[in-house]
């Protein structure tokens, strides 16, 4: 059932999967390295980027300008919008370097940025959660700028060797996301660098409505009005979600969450129902997905969801038919102990998602039905009800 609380906070790393592995005290950042490391022979965009790498004085100046943003990120748990920005940054970085098997990898960028221990301590994870751990540690240790500059610098040669040169839109998007996190990076916007990058791919432009084609013409005109309508509705839901997130009355926000979810699930044709009661229990809602009925539980509280909430919901699901499944949405996530205990209690009958998953859907990064497909498949293959948004 919906429960209100104080201003919600969201941990992007999920329930103790990677956030708990970050090292303790802040590491001292190494001084910036100029172009001398290559003897002045490196030309083109890579040399420009190396020359722009900030030295100690520049780093101190940037630190003074951004100390308030950095302090808030270091002291407070990651807010919902910051978690979404970090998740998108990981997506942009993912294809820039390999995790292993190449002369230069993410491990080299981590070492130069003073984050080598973070990279090596997460060697048991797949590539995406390891990159997520690097970005989060960079935010905490004020070394995100060094990390991003090194990744871009090493990626220039790596991607060129793979016949997939680094593109302008990738670097510009990385700079945009860094600014949204309070880390302006003018070196990534240097005109001399941008002009030497591969051009951004041009997207095809389709007409908004279908027009009669000329007899004998090979041109096929596509009506994308339905897609445009869907995008507009999704944008409206995202804005509404952020309004709920910013409401001072958290109980009212919690009460409004059910109606919001009904609209979201309706947009993706999942046939949702409103909250209803059966004898002795309350169900927040239900929906239909891949020929199976799912019961829905949604919570938006200041604290992460505990194990007893998962046990209670699983019991509700088990009292229905053997074909009934469950979806538990906790906007502020789940404790690591809750997920582990839920798995030990028997085969889970519900999948778990949090605010980072929902924001990925609302931002157009993944459709709701694809999200459900991936988390349910993860449960079926691994027996794990929780797949972090960064691993989708």
Explain what this protein looks like in three dimensions.
This protein has 392 residues and is α/β, with parallel strands linked by helices. The chain has helices at 44-52, 56-65, 67-75, 80-94, 106-112, 116-121, 127-140, 144-161, 168-180, 191-194, 225-246, 250-267, 307-318, 336-344, 355-362, 368-382, and strands at 276-278, 281-283, 285-289, 292-299, 325-330, 350-354. The strands form two sheets. It has a four-stranded mixed beta sheet. It starts with 43 loop residues before the first helix and ends in a 10-residue tail after the last helix. Mean pLDDT is 78; it is low at 1-14, 16-42, 58-77, 203-213 and 217-222.
SSE layout and pairing:
Layout: H1 44-52, H2 56-65, H3 67-75, H4 80-94, H5 106-112, H6 116-121, H7 127-140, H8 144-161, H9 168-180, H10 191-194, H11 225-246, H12 250-267, E1 276-278, E2 281-283, E3 285-289, E4 292-299, H13 307-318, E5 325-330, H14 336-344, E6 350-354, H15 355-362, H16 368-382
Helix pairs in contact: 1-8, 4-7, 4-9, 4-15, 5-8, 7-8, 11-12, 13-14
* Number of helical regions: 16
Summarize the main sheet.
4 strands, mixed
State mean pLDDT (0 to 100 scale).
Answer: 78
What's the number of domains?
2
Write the H/E string, N to C. Answer: HHHHHHHHHHHHEEEEHEHEHH
**How many strand elements?**
6
The neighbouring-strand order within the major sheet is: 3-4-5-6
DSSP helix fraction: 40-55%
Low-confidence stretches: 1-14, 16-42, 58-77, 203-213, 217-222
User: What is the 3D form?
Assistant: globular
What percent strand?
Answer: 5-15%
Radius of gyration: 23 Å
N-to-C span: 27 Å
Q: What class, by secondary structure content? A: alpha/beta
